[in-house]
């Protein structure tokens, strides 16, 4: 079964404490991306990756890092989280014209 | 750069009536167009896409969308709305060249009233 998994699904943390949200896919897709969803703003792309070791900034990359050391994984790293990064985060892959989304990670930064 | 506009934040429709959720796009090349739906506390689910061919695309749950190149629109439609269609709907576009990210609209909340 085609799947995109994210962990954790829910996370409450404090300002400045580094965290990583993992994303893994089993479809061998080259393209992966991270979005954040905020009320009234829709989904905004944070970073995307066309292939291993190739990453590019999306619309809202500030405060985030990513890495793509292997095709299946695309972790999102918040080195020093701040309250304005409280959001719902989605990882996604694109295979041809089909995009698959993970279940989402709800992050709260206090 | 490509962009997507969903001009309505909220659409209200009575159950059994036809519904339309509007989407217009702006791209410098040929687009692939998508509709996704998000139910409360859930991720995004694919509804339908336009790649090429027939301008009227049929998708999941009885939804369809019409690609109109001259008006750069891709409105989502359903002949008879159900209460269970109430959700957040997103339109998205990607260039056919494939080397650009998928861009989403801000979403339209559909409420179907019994």
Please give a structural write-up:
Chain A has 110 residues and is mainly beta. Chain A has no helices and 11 strands. In chain A, strands 2, 4, 5, 6, 9, 10 and 11 form a 7-stranded mixed beta sheet that branches. Chain B has 114 residues and is mostly beta strands. Chain B has strands at 3-5, 10-14, 19-21, 24-26, 31-38, 44-50, 56-58, 64-68, 73-78, 87-95, 103-104, 108-113. In chain B, strands 2, 5, 6, 10, 11 and 12 form a 6-stranded mixed beta sheet that branches. Chain B has a 4-stranded antiparallel beta sheet with strand order 3-9-8-7, with no helix packed on it. The mean pLDDT of chain B is 91. The A-B interface holds A 33, 35, 40-45, 48, 50, 56, 58, 90, 92, 94, 97-104 and B 6, 9, 32, 34, 36, 42-46, 49, 51, 90, 92, 94, 99, 101-107.
Helix vs. strand class of chain A: mainly beta
Largest sheet properties of chain B: 6 strands, mixed
Average of pLDDT of chain B: 91
Number of strands of chain B: 12
In angstroms, what separates the terminal alpha carbons of chain B? 41 Å
Helix fraction of chain B by DSSP (H/I, runs of at least 4): under 10%
Kindly report the oligomeric state of this protein.
Answer: heterodimer
Radius of gyration of chain B (CA) equals 14 Å
Could you give the order of the helices and strands of chain A? EEEEEEEEEEE
